[in-house]
Design goal:
This protein is α+β, with helices and mostly antiparallel strands. It contains 6 helices and 9 strands. A hairpin with a 4-residue loop joins strand 8 and strand 9.
């Protein structure tokens, strides 16, 4: 019983931390989400990501543990939570953004156990804002695209303004995109 309560608490705290990070980033990117390029703060050429990038992995591990602990009493719910938690934990560890590097020709998104994603400024087609505070910014480019979550951007929101500035994107009412 204590282990279940601890796993449920850890899952709740982790999910709350994800939402809190999202709310901070939501506030910081308000102007960009409304179509105003905003003021861009200085950004080092390469910046390590915030420790908040670990929140998704922590939430996944906690939900996996909770699923494992309740599977005997609630087989379907336990198995579902276990599978979902395992997928989130795996993705949260493997695909965790470790650094954002702004180069003259591209934005490089470095990840923990996956290859870096290189988004060339010349190939960036659109920048879609999240619909909720826990959602991510979708950067669509040729040939690579990526979604940057609030934890990936925390403290580095200037990357979005740099992308808009370097690519000449304009706001069409829903997203930043190439002029028609």
């Amino acid at each position: 019983m204590v282990a279940r309560a601890a796993a449920a608490t850890a899952a709740g705290v982790s999910l709350g931390a994800i939402w809190a990070t999202g709310l901070v980033s939501w506030r910081r990117t308000r102007a960009l989400r409304r179509g105003q390029p905003g003021h861009r703060s200085p950004l080092r050429a390469s910046s390590r990501s915030s420790a908040t990038t670990w929140f998704a992995a922590a939430a996944g591990v906690a939900v996996l543990a909770l699923g494992t602990l309740i599977v005997r009493d609630a087989p379907i719910a336990g198995a579902g939570a276990g599978v979902a938690g395992g997928l989130v934990a795996t993705s949260g560890i493997r695909s965790r953004v470790t650094a954002l590097e702004v180069r003259d020709d591209a934005l490089v998104v470095r990840r923990a156990l996956r290859p870096a994603v290189i988004l060339r400024w010349a190939g960036l087609r659109s920048l879609g804002p999240p619909r909720t505070p826990a959602g991510g910014w979708r950067l669509r480019a040729e040939p690579n695209s990526i979604t940057l979550m609030p934890s990936d951007l925390l403290g580095h929101e200037a990357v979005l303004a740099i992308a808009i500035e370097r690519t000449g994107l304009w706001f069409d009412g829903r997203r930043w995109s190439q002029p028609p």
